[in-house]
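=== RUN LOG ===
request id: a7f3
mode: sequence -> structure
chains: 1
length: 244
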Amino acid sequence: MSYLMIFIGIVLFLLILSTLIVTLVHFFLAFFDICIGERYFPYKYTKGNNEPKFKVRYDIPAISYIFSIFPLALIMSIIDKYFSHSFDIYAYIIAASIYSIIMYLGMYRKTGRIDGGEYYRGLLKNHRQFLQLSFLPFVFFITVVGFVLATMDKIEGLPDWSLSSNSVSAFMDAIWEIPRDSSENHYFLESSSKLLLMLYIFSLPLQIISFFVNQISEYLFSNGQGYKRYLRKVWGGVVWIFNK
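=== RESULT ===
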């Protein structure tokens, strides 16, 4: 039994590590999709079947959100290098917004014309349903914390919490320092489980931003023609003024 626990822990750790790398690759592919759309490597149909072939980077939203720490860290490092922005919650929000926009724009460019847009709508629905499901543990936790804070007159020694990298790091350290089983046979399994929990918590702000981007994408895809015609008229008017 002890060797089985070690094996499961190692397999879980390797699965998490490989998925983190895959998510980074998917991020670059999404950026590539924005540039070329469906001209190269399009979604192709299987023989004798009208369903598109499976494409992991858009069809499994759990990978895109929970395991997004590598592309987010890459974007944040660029922000820090060129804009001298410190590594804090605001840089994270900017990076998460950029990541979400790139992912959804790449998704649209790659799949927006398949079956008259029905496949793209299906992807949006898939992502939205996952985000709604993923919010449930977080909403439950916030509800419990809110109830405790509302019913307690005073909490002794409660430190001030600020939106900074130090507070986030302290929270992550507290999770990592959760007492574990004394048996070394469970080390890999418990460590991998804690790592997965930390990745989920780290991705929550990204998921909130992505849910907003998802709703905007669905609205514009269904009702964006009027806005497009309006912008074309405005642009035509600007060109006419400068050419006059």
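=== NOTES ===
Residues 2-217 form one domain.
The chain has nine helices and no strands.
=== END ===
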